[in-house]
Each structure stands twice: as C-alpha cells, then as structure tokens.
Amino acid sequence: MQGMMDFSAFQRLILQPKINVDYHKGDCHELTTNDHGWMVKAKEDCRTILTASYLHSKYKLAQFHAHWGHDGTYGSEHLIDGKPFSGEVHFVFWKMEYGSFDEATKYDDGLSVIAVFLQEGEYDNIAYEPIVDCVKTALITKGTVPVPHDFDFNSLLPKLHNFCTYPGSLTTPPYAECVVWTVIKTTVEVSKVQLDVFRQIAPSNVRACQEMCDRKVKASSME
C-alpha cells in the first residue's frame, strides 16, 4: 500500500504535539532532475535533524522533492476532507540509529517524511525561487545543479503545529513500508509561473490517492 491518503477523520490526538527541524546552512547540496521530477539532495555529512514528540529517535535529512499535476486543481498525493491541492513537497529524513538511509528503509519506522501542500496562487513564493532557478538551470544543462550555500531551508516550511501522522510507505517504487508520514495541514502558496517551471520536467507526476484501510491516524488537533 502506498502512502497517499485522504484524511477525513482523525482517530487519536497527539499529546503535546511538537515538530522541530534544526537546519544547518549548506546541508542542501545539489538539485538533480529526471523524467519524473526534481530532487534536492543533502550532503553526506548533513547535520540537519528532525525531532518530534511522536518520534522516538532523531532523523537526518536525506532529500526533498515535489509532486504536482497538469494544473492547479489536483497535484497532491494526500487529500484533506476530500480536497486535493496543487502540489506536495516531501521532505525525507532517515532514522540515525540505523546507520544509513538504505539500512533505515528495512524498518517500518526507518524514514520520516514531512508532506507540505502547495497551493497555486497569484504571486511567486520567494522562498521557493532558489529551487525554481535551479530547475531552470537543470532544464538547460541536463545536469546536476548546486544549491546556493545560503539557501534558507526552513523558509520552505509553513508553521508545523497543525498536522496528522500515520505509518505508511514510500509513494514511489519499491513502495517499502518504512515511513512515518507527517502531513502538514497548513498550505504554502506558490505561483502558477513557478509550478509551470516544474511542469517543464513532467506535466504531472502525482499518483492517485489511496484508501486509508486500517491505518491509525493521529492528529495534533481536531481542526
């Protein structure tokens, strides 16, 4: 089962919910593209750490990437109360006690992925412009593009106080059941112009939403 869900009901509240991402400048190393999308990779000696009240260990940043659709009406891999969003960014972290990313994928809590919704709006999002610029360069050079050292990772994230979390899987092959998903309910606005740059890589790279089945969903609030 892939980790793409429609959250219409929350089964349990998280006591004292808290998420913290401690980003170290320069950890976002390079952007790569393929036929399906773009990815920003972290340095091998990355020091950016995710901690949360519902996670029982520290997780290190590995990469982040995005999903989007043909237009602004549908591009997210999670839904809230049946509503899709224009896109979705996945920030991927791995559990440090497992020693490596590859080893972490062998365990059901090996990865922690923060999903952030993108909503198409009128104005460019300045925080995402460095990524858009890197994608533009990659489209021309067909190669790896360095991310600026002063890139502000934290500005990509909305406030992290309103979220839900559940155990799931990767949304791309091999769909390993190794992910603790955190879906942030606060959206980030980006422009159609910015999303259209991503669509030059692929018109759409979003997969259909999956059934929740019997997955246990926890939420920071009932909002």
Explain how this protein is built:
- The protein is mainly beta and 223 residues long.
- It has one domain: Carbonic Anhydrase II (Roll).
- 11% of the residues lie in helices and 35% in strands.
- The protein has 3 helices and 14 strands.
- It has helices spanning 101-104, 129-141, 192-199, and strands spanning 6-7, 12-13, 19-22, 28-33, 38-42, 49-52, 59-68, 79-80, 87-95, 111-121, 145-146, 163-168, 179-191, 218-219.
- Helix 2 (129-141) packs parallel to helix 3 (192-199).
- The longest helix is centred in the middle third of the chain and has 13 residues, at 129-141.
- The model has no long low-confidence stretch (mean pLDDT 92).
Question: CATH homologous superfamily name?
Answer: Alpha carbonic anhydrase
Which regions have little confidence, pLDDT < 50, spanning 5+ residues?
none
Supply the helix-strand structural class.
Answer: mainly beta
Strand content: 25-35%
* Average of the residue pLDDT scores: 92
CA-based shape:
globular
**Share in helix:** 10-25%
**SSE topology string:** EEEEEEEEEHEHEEEHE
Strands, total number: 14
The biggest beta sheet reads:
12 strands, mixed
In angstroms, what separates the terminal alpha carbons?
27 Å
Our count of domains comes out at: 1
Query: What is the CATH topology?
Result: Carbonic Anhydrase II
Give Rg in angstroms: 16 Å
- The CATH architecture can be named as Roll
